[in-house]
Amino acid sequence: MMNTVMKQPVSRGQVILAAKDLVKIYGSSQNPTRALDGASLEIRNGELLVILGYSGSGKTTLLNMLGGMDKPTSGSIAFRGREISGMNEKERTRYRKEHIGFVFQNFNLIPELTALENVELTADKKEDPRIAAHMLELVDLADKKDAYPAQLSGGQQQRVSIARALAKRPELLLCDEPTGALDSETGRQILIRLEDLVRAHGKTVVIVTHTREVSRMADRTVIIRNGKIIQEEINGQIVSAREITW
Ligand SMILES: Nc1ncnc2c1ncn2[C@@H]1O[C@H](COP(=O)(O)OP(=O)(O)OP(=O)(O)O)[C@@H](O)[C@H]1O
Ligand SMILES: [Mg+2]
Fold first, then answer.
1. Is residue 32 in contact with ligand 1, taking CB distance under 6 Å?
2. Is the pTM of the predicted complex or chain greater than 0.85?
3. Cα 51 to ligand 2 centre (Å)
4. What does each C-alpha distance from 90 to 77, 99, 101, 192 come to in angstroms?
5. Which atom of ligand 1 is the closest one to the Cα of 210?
């Protein structure tokens, strides 16, 4: 039987990932942290969605659930109609591998591998054997290809992590503070690159950030507060709001 979600073409604007009433509780029952508290959101094909929220609001937790890195305590997550929240570890790994590109807030590079080798790990070499090298060029790090993560600055490591996510040519790219370790000019270049993926290549990109600035280029921005999505904006206009405003 089919264990994976088929890569059927989905038209632009169609919902590809729908999360409903997500709750994530960390810690023991004596001392629980409710990192997500009923978060619901939809991600549409071909959009650039920004999830904006203060530190500790649940952004990384939400992205981890959407990308199948972890399981919610309750609630549902459907990728193209297929429920992923109940998958076991092996199935989730497969889901991630087949559909998701992830830019981690803490980069998650493998210390024993060079920059190029880190990117090659996920690269889709069938389509282009030089893809890893190309992606490093794209983030302006061709000259650091043989450097190990410990020999790179935080911003350079972040760019390797972005190159690694892109080299896989994922359908859905989830980015956790992709410009957090970058100076504003390098950050701007990276955002332009991510926007180009959406506009010119029809990819779906989700960016999590605490910086209002980033939402300027978004098709849609949702605001997360205390583990809930409280507001949605399109072109800077609030289209739906719950409880409190930003
Ligand atoms: N593994 C964990 N164990 C216990 N508590 C956790 C864990 N991960 C996150 N939390 C808690 O869950 C809440 C949400 O954390 P999360 O990392 O999702 O926030 P965030 O919005 O990504 O913050 P930041 O902008 O600082 O990255 C916080 O209160 C945090 O302390
Ligand atoms: Mg975070």
1. no
2. yes
3. 11
4. 17, 14, 17, 35
5. 25
